[in-house]
Each structure stands twice: as C-alpha cells, then as structure tokens.
Design goal:
The complex is a heterodimer of chains A (319) and B (644).
Chain A (H helix, E strand, L loop, with lengths): L1 H18 L1 H6 L45 H4 L32 H5 L8 H11 L13 H7 L2 E8 L14 E6 L7 H11 L3 E2 L4 E6 L5 H20 L22 H10 L9 H14 L3 H14 L8
Antiparallel strand pairs in A: 1-2, 2-4, 3-4
Helix pairs in contact in A: 7-8, 10-11
Chain B lengths: L1 H11 L2 E9 L20 H7 L24 H24 L30 H9 L3 H14 L5 H14 L10 H6 L2 H6 L10 H8 L5 H13 L3 H14 L5 H9 L1 H4 L3 H17 L6 H12 L5 H16 L6 H11 L9 H9 L14 H12 L3 H12 L10 H18 L2 H12 L8 H14 L5 H10 L6 H13 L7 H18 L13 H14 L2 H13 L10 H14 L2 H13 L5 H11 L4 H10 L6
Classes of the chains: A alpha+beta (319), B mainly alpha (644).
GO molecular function, one term (chain A): structural constituent of ribosome
Protein name (chain A): Small ribosomal subunit protein mS35 mitochondrial conserved domain-containing protein
InterPro entries (chain A): Ribosomal_mS35_mit, Ribosomal_mS35_mt
Chain lengths: 319, 644
C-alpha cells in the first residue's frame, strides 16, 4: 500500500519534471532513488572558495600539570589500556631498524600490552586496608598444612565473573572443581584398585590427588551437587563388590603377584618346603616380581639371574 | 558460531574472584571454630575500593573523554560536550521508539525494562488495571491518562486505591510529563531552579486531575489532601483554600502534607506579616485538633513562611522557637531547613548575623541525603553568606569541607548553583589569602576541571595580581583566559596590558619574552577577528600604546612599527589615543635604530592627536640624529621647529 502511493507520487513528479525540466534540474532532489545528472566536465564553480584550514594547536597534556607527589592511585584507579596523556613517564616501546624505540605517543605497542599501572604497591596496600573489614580471621587452631588436609580434605573451586555487559550471568561461572587426596578415603587395596579404575585419568599419581570437574548442569549449585554425588557414588561403588568381581583370575590381574602364581608352587615343590622356610626366597620373589612387572631389561634380567643363583646356592658370577 | 564468539569474548573478561573452600570438616581431636561470614551487599566491595580514591585535579569529570583534545576546558565546552553526549542518547531513544520491532532481543539477564522498547498505548490497546498501576509506578503521566481514559470508556471499574494513586500522580506532576530521569546532563545544565523560584499560578484549571477528583463519588480525605497539595504546589491557591474549607466542613482529617502545602502558600492569602502568622497558627491549631503529627516538611514550610516575613527581631525569635519546638518533637532539621534559617537571618540589608557558624557546629562532619528540594540551596547560600555577609574565610572553608564530606557533593544542586558556589568561594579566598596561597592551593587545583572562573572572577584575580604586582602568574592566567574564550573581553585585556606596562619585566629575562608573547597574542587575536562577527572588539589607542610599549621593551622594533602604522593609518577610527610615554618610547627606539622616517610618522601622529609634548619629541629626534633636508622639512611642517 505504501509502495503504491510512493509510485503514484513518483509518476506525478515525473510529469512535472517533463514540464519544468530545465528549472527542475537544479532544484533540490527529494527522491533518493533518482540518478544524479552525470557531469563530465567538472564545473569548478560548483565548489565554493576553499576555506583556509584552521590550524589546530597542539594541546598541553595532563601530564604537564601533574605534581610530583600526586596520588597516582586516583589518577589511574582501574585497569585501562595505556594512555600517553595520562602517564607522566617517558616510556618507549617497540622496534625500529635504526634509532631508538618509538616514544609513548600513538604507540600501539604500548596499548597492546597489559599494564599494571592501577596496581602499584601503595594502592594494593590501601585497597587491602579497605577490604579488611570484610575479612574474618583465620581459625587459630588451624595452623599447619597437615591439619588443614586432615580436617578439610575436600577443596571446592569455582569462579565468579564481573564485567560490563547487559547480563550478569556468565556461562563459565557454572564450572565447579573439587579436589581431594585419595588417601583421605581410607580404601583398602582392592577398593583402591577399583576406585582408580573408576576415576581413570582424574587421579594424579604424583601427588595422590583426585580432581573432579563438573560443568554439565547450567548452574553452579547444580554442578556442585553433582560433584558431591559423584564423590559419594565413587566411594560406595569402590566399596561394593559385585558377584562378577569374584571371578577375577590370574589373567585379569593388573600386576604380577608372586604368591598367587605357579612360580611359588614350583619352588615349593623343588625344595619340598613351604616358601617361608626356603632361604633367600624373598630375594628371589622380589626379583621375579620386578622382572614380571617392569618388563625385561638388562637390570631385571641380571637381578633375576643373581636371585636364582642365590636360591640354588650356586656360586655368584661376580665373585 | 554465535555462542562460541560470546564465550570467546567472555574469556577475555576479568576473572573476578576465585572461591576456594574446603569441605567436610570432621571434628576429631580439637574444636576448630570457623568465624561467621561478615554479611555484605552486592556493591559493598566496590564502594570500599572507591573510598580509597580522591579527586584527581588534573582529570575532567568522568563523563568526558580522557583525552587532551576532548577534555572540555571552558564552561561552554563543558556544556556542549555533555549535551552532545546526551543528544546522542536521545537520538538512540528516538531510533528505538521508531523501530521497536528491531529491539526485541533480550541479552540482559535479569531483564532491564529500560532496555526494551516502551509500550505505546492508544485507544485500541487492551489494558487492565494492572497496566495502570505499572505506569503509575513508573511515573509515566501521559500513559496513565491514556490508560485511564480507555478504562473509563470500556467501563472497567478501577479500585479506589488505584484511583487515589492516579490522582496523586496527576496532582504531583500537574498532569504533565516530567523530564525523563535518564537525562542527567539535561537536568544538570538546565537552569530550572531559577524558573521555579518565580511563583505564579501554573496549575491547569479543569485538568484531568480535577476531572478525576470530581468523578470520585464521596471523595475521601486522601483525595482532598492530594488535590489540595497539587493546587498549592502549582499556586492555584484560592481553590486550594476553598477545598480545604470544604474538607474541614465535612469533618475530614487531611494528611500532614496537605497542611504543609497550605502553610507554604500562606503569603498568597495574607498581606501583612501578623495576619499571615495568625493564619499559619490557625492551620497549626486545626492540625493539632485533628491530631495530625507534624513532620520535617511542616518545619520547612514554617521556616520558609517565616523567611518571607521581613527582617524584624521577632521573626528571628520565632524561627529559633520553631526549631526548638520541632527538636522537642524529635524532628531533626535537614539542610533545607538550615537554608531557610540562613535566608531569614542573613538578609542583604539586615544586621550581620553569625548564625552560619552555629549551624556549622551543629552539622559539621555529618553526611546528608536529600530530604527536601531546598536542600540543594544550602551550600550555595551558605557560601554566599560566608563571602558577602560575613566575609569570613574560616567559615567558607568549613562549608567547603562539609561539601566534600561523604556524598554531600550530591546536594550541590545543578551546574548553575555549582558555579555560583565556586564563584563565591573563589572570591572569598582571593580576598582573604595571599596570592601565592590562592594560586597554589585553589587556582591550580580547581581550574579548569572543577571550576572555570567567569570573566568577572577572572577580573578580580587579575586585579589582585595587579595590586600585588605578582606578575609571575600572568602568563598562566593569560593562557587560561585564552582557553576559556575570554580573550576578547576588553576589561580583561586592559587589566592584563596595564599589569605588563606598570610592572616591566627585567630585560632579556624569560618573563620579558612571555610578556612580549602575550602582547603580540592580544594584538593578533584582535586584528584577526572575523570581519562579519557581531560585537567585534576593536582596538583603542590606549590598548595599542600598551601593546607597543611591551613589545618595545622586549626590543622587537619591527613589530612595534606595524602597530605604529596601524595607529597612524586608522587615526580616525581608533578610539582614544595612547599614552604619551608609549610614543616617546617609540621615538627613543627609532633613534636607537636610526630610522628617522618612522620617528617622524610617530611625531606626526602625536601632533595630530593633540599632544603638546610632540615638540619635545621632535627636538629629541633632531638632537640625537643628524637629519637630512627632507626629514627636516617634514618635521618643521609638523611642529614649529624653532630650535635651530
């Protein structure tokens, strides 16, 4: 409908145009979609006389008014990118083939790098003083790392985000991480084995720590609850013995254990004694376990040889 | 794609805090007591950090860009820049209201109503009482009127409470929309307060508020209170009084604010002070009978009425008595009350009163929030009293300290009041301290970011510099005058030139060069003014003479010659003549530079201007230089050279 009226308008205007084509030519053209007349011969009279360019005087920067003992924390109160007119330091940054590095004015290098001009030591000190009133004292009895680990075995880590945008939500805030020592669970060998199979790569052998990160729920609270659920489930599942677990035989063992193996029976048969009565048996079994678990290398093989000789009372090759 | 970009962006944001807590506290051997978390609001930490900051005197207000080219340096540019930003904001609002369908994306969470396009109501909108309540809550007067109209045409009944709140809204705003709260800058720069002080009837007779009041069958006491307050606020005093009588007859108990509003307009009913006081007492008596408890606004209304009742001792006693009685009632006066006390006690033609000191001892060190519109008048009036009434710098400093305490600066009012305040403060300090202290402690710290001196204040500063001969501050002051666009004010230029002429700088010192620069700067700015400019500043003879003197002292003979040329060429158009000393100095320099032609031009000018001493100039020239025939002829044509 609107288009139609526009078209009608245009037709009317075209008619008028035909009548007054000469005068219309220079009239202000209100229709946006009409072409402008192509002017091949540039008519210089179209442009007015050129105005002389006004020279802009270079202005004094704030740095020139700054006093030496000014309060820098108030000048640069929050993180911001570098501004040469505010920082009263003759900083240079960047690289040129020959000559000194470029100075601070219009220096993109300085603007790119993060600066810590808002966190000078006196500022940190006085901000800490201001924040002290929100802090509670550290519990007196909780004075060493051992106690902390013993009494508070689980560490929960989550983050809050603060930025200028219409929304106060941040998807990253939902992520919850919990961390604890495996030893705090007091599991026996079988349970430990099952627990390690369940947590997989979340267990760090070096420092005996289990780390569980939950981020599948939309809210922090939900993720926290889920992490706690996982911890509980892991613990009880490790304690639980399924009927099929009893069926585990020698081939399923993840480690070679001498006591359970044919080697023990053979040695006992050879000496016709129980293994505990055989002299030097512990050396032999240790060497064999090492050989089986660590794999075959010069060291384990040599060690094994030595142990066999000791066991059978043969003269040692090194002697 | 979209989400990943958002997440990427988020990653760049600052990670604010890391919460690390350990759980599963198991008491084994010893009891470990974990202290309770100290409760805090969502912004308490930010406020605590903010409290460590001070005002940076080199920075402009944070609404401006921190860039040397974009920092406003004069009052006009301050206003222009801020209003430009505001107009951008308005343009954005306009675009949004023109194309509301484009702005339906809801990024914000929790939802911010102001970000969404405004609901538009017309005759066909489906509205309910809830909509009416909403718009009343948001102070949208015209929308409330439209919705009310639709509801009545459709015959939807509105609960009496909503009707009452609608009536209150309309009465408070005189059935007009107010300026949007978002336009802070417009409010700051608008000089509305001065308009508001003019008291005339602005209540629209027969407006919608009245219609609604009539439409209520059996109006309640609250309805009467609302309409009386509205009428009194917009000075429809006769009908307010009439309705008041009506309400009294019906035996209604009005609320305290209705009585307050009637006290405020008492000066419209009764001419004489005694009659007026009797009338006010009457209202107070009926308040007492109705057992309405007076409040802070009652106190302010009373003090305001008292402040309009002249200068007699009796009124001042009454003021103090009122204050004491309200104190007994447990009503602490606010800054607005003290403002009324000040204007009662410190009248222009009245005797001096030291009440400001007493008031300050009462309120010093306290933080205030706004309780009455008149609160914003306190600081400017207090400084006015400190300067013009008492001329007491100690009091002035105490007022200023109170202003800087906590959030008290919010009560400065608007830009106009702020600049009046600083005008008084500057004047007070200037008159009562040494010029060095003034410049170091006040001028350098406040100009131009906190306050830009008006030409009159600048004149006072220059006069002080002139009186004390503190010429070392002149270059700084002149550069400020240039920055503040005051360099075409004749008064300022004359004072600057006088200072430079009367206090010659040591030869070939840095100051001499600066003086020369200032003088030449004055000359070029005046001569390079746009020809089409209205109110052009034109040279006076005296001005040019002074400029020439300063330039000659520095020793730039060529530039002095151009000025001499100007003088002699436009002899008829330039007002006044330079001092004779200037001309004499010029001839001296001509002799020094051995250019008799120019000296003769000067002597010619001196003779034309009617200086009888022109003869002595000619004699001097003749004495020091051997003139040739032509020069001698010319010279003798000008003056009777009878010396040889």
């Amino acid at each position: 409908m609107l288009n139609l009226t526009k078209n009608i308008e245009r037709i009317i205007i075209r008619n008028i145009e035909k009548q007054y084509i000469a005068s219309y030519f220079s009239a202000p053209n209100e229709q946006n979609d009409d072409f402008k007349a192509l002017n091949l011969k540039t008519n210089k009279s179209q442009f007015g006389p050129r105005r002389p360019l006004r020279k802009v005087k270079p202005v004094e920067t704030r740095t020139s008014q700054m006093e030496v003992d000014q309060d820098w924390g108030s000048v640069w109160p929050a993180p911001r990118s570098f501004h040469p007119a505010v920082v009263p330091l003759p900083i240079r940054q960047g690289y040129v083939e020959k000559g000194a590095p470029p100075d601070k004015y219009a220096n993109a290098e300085l603007m790119k790098i993060p600066n810590f001009l808002h966190l000078t030591p006196p500022v940190i000190k006085r901000q800490c003083e201001a924040l002290k009133k929100f802090c509670t004292p550290w519990p007196k009895n909780l004075n060493n790392q051992e106690k902390i680990e013993k009494l508070f075995p689980i560490e929960v880590i989550s983050s809050d985000y603060c930025h200028s945008s219409p929304t106060i939500r941040d998807p990253l805030a939902r992520i919850v991480t919990i961390r604890f020592k495996k030893s705090a669970l007091n599991l026996n060998e079988r349970e430990t084995d099952k627990f390690r199979r369940l947590v997989g790569e979340r267990y760090n052998e070096e420092n005996d720590t289990v780390t569980i990160v939950t981020d599948r729920c939309p809210l922090k609270k939900q993720n926290y609850d889920y992490a706690m659920y996982l911890l509980t489930a892991l613990y009880h599942e490790s304690k639980n013995v399924e009927p099929w677990e009893e069926l585990k035989n020698e081939a399923d063992m993840e480690k070679y254990v001498w006591e359970n193996n044919a080697s023990k029976v053979n040695v006992e048969r050879l000496f016709n004694k129980t293994s505990s009565e055989i002299p030097n048996i512990s050396v032999y079994s240790e060497a064999l376990v090492n050989y089986m678990n660590e794999g075959e290398n010069d060291y384990t093989v040599a060690k094994y040889g030595e142990a066999v000789k000791q066991l059978l009372n043969l003269p040692s090759s090194t002697k | 794609m979209n989400i990943s970009s958002i997440i990427l962006r988020r990653h760049n944001h600052i990670k604010n805090t890391k919460l690390v807590g350990r759980l599963f506290y198991t008491a084994v051997e010893e009891k470990i007591e974990i202290p309770k978390r100290i409760p805090r609001g969502p912004t308490d930490i930010l406020r605590a950090l903010e409290s460590t900051l001070q005002r940076d005197p080199t920075a402009a207000h944070y609404k401006y860009h921190d860039d040397p080219y974009l920092m406003p340096k004069s009052n006009t540019s301050k206003r222009t820049y801020a209003m430009a930003e505001e107009s951008g904001r308005k343009a954005a609002h306009w675009v949004r209201s023109e194309n509301p369908e484009l702005f339906n994306h809801k990024e914000c969470d929790p939802a911010i109503d102001l970000f969404f396009p405004k609901q538009v109501y017309d005759e066909n909108s489906e509205v309910t009482e809830k909509d009416l309540k909403d718009v009343i809550g948001k102070n949208q007067v015209s929308d409330a009127i439209v919705i009310n109209k639709i509801l009545t045409t459709k015959g939807i009944e509105v609960s009496p409470e909503t009707k009452q709140s609608l009536l209150e809204l309309l009465c408070y705003n005189n059935s007009e929309d107010t300026l949007d709260e978002e336009y802070i800058e417009e409010r700051w720069f608008k000089q509305s307060s001065r308009l508001r002080e003019r008291q005339r009837k602005t209540w629209k007779d027969g407006n919608i508020a009245e219609e609604i009041f009539i439409s209520i069958d059996n109006p309640t006491a609250d309805a009467y209170s609302a309409i009386i307050q509205g009428m009194a606020k917009y000075f429809q005093v006769d009908r307010a009084n009439q309705l008041y009588e009506e309400a009294l007859q019906k035996g209604f108990v009005l609320n305290a604010d209705a009585y307050n509003s009637l006290i405020r307009v008492a000066n419209f009913f009764k001419e004489g002070y005694d009659l007026r006081w009797a009338y006010i007492n009457n209202i107070l008596l009926s308040m007492n009978q109705a057992e309405v408890k007076p409040n802070l606004r009652t106190l302010n209304a009373l003090l305001w009425a008292l402040s309009t009742m002249g200068n007699s001792k009796n009124i001042k006693d009454l003021t103090l008595k009122t204050l004491r009685q309200f104190k007994d009632l447990g009503i602490e006066p606010c800054l607005g009350s003290w403002y009324y006390v000040l204007i009662t006690f410190c009248k222009e033609r009245g005797p001096k009163s030291n009440i400001l000191g007493n008031i300050l001892t009462q309120i010093e060190g306290k933080e205030f929030s706004i309780q009455d519109l008149a609160d914003t008048n306190f600081f400017v009036t207090a400084m006015d009293v400190a300067k013009n009434h008492l001329n007491n710098i100690v009091l002035g400093k105490r007022v200023h300290n109170l202003l800087l305490k906590g959030n008290n600066y919010n009560l400065i009012g608007d830009s106009y009041k702020e600049s009046v305040y600083y005008r008084h403060y500057f004047g007070l300090v200037l008159m009562n301290t040494s010029i060095d202290e003034f410049m170091e402690q006040f001028y350098y710290k406040m100009v131009p970011n906190i306050y830009v001196p008006e030409p009159a204040v600048m004149e006072d500063v220059l006069k002080q510099v002139e009186a004390l001969g503190a010429t070392e501050y002149l270059p700084k002051l002149w550069s400020d005058i240039v920055i503040f666009d005051q360099n075409l004010r004749e008064k300022l230029i004359n004072i600057v030139l006088n200072i430079m002429v009367d206090n010659p700088a040591k030869e070939s010192s840095e100051l001499a060069e600066r003086f020369f620069n200032i003088a030449w700067d004055i000359y070029t700015t005046i001569s390079e003014q746009n020809l089409e400019k209205i109110n052009r500043l034109s040279f006076t003879g005296d001005m040019l003479g002074s400029i020439m003197t300063v330039i000659l002292r520095y020793g730039d003979f060529e530039k002095a010659c151009t000025i001499m040329n100007d003088l002699s060429k436009s002899h008829t158009t330039i007002l006044g003549v330079p001092k004779f000393d200037a001309l004499s100095l010029f001839v001296d320099h001509c002799i020094k530079n051995k250019s008799p032609t120019r000296a003769i031009v000067c002597i010619q000018y001196a003779a034309d201007s009617g200086f009888p001493e022109a003869v002595s100039l000619g004699a001097k020239l003749n004495q020091h230089l051997t003139l040739d025939e032509i020069h001698l002829n010319k010279l003798s044509n000008i003056i009777d050279l009878k010396l040889q």
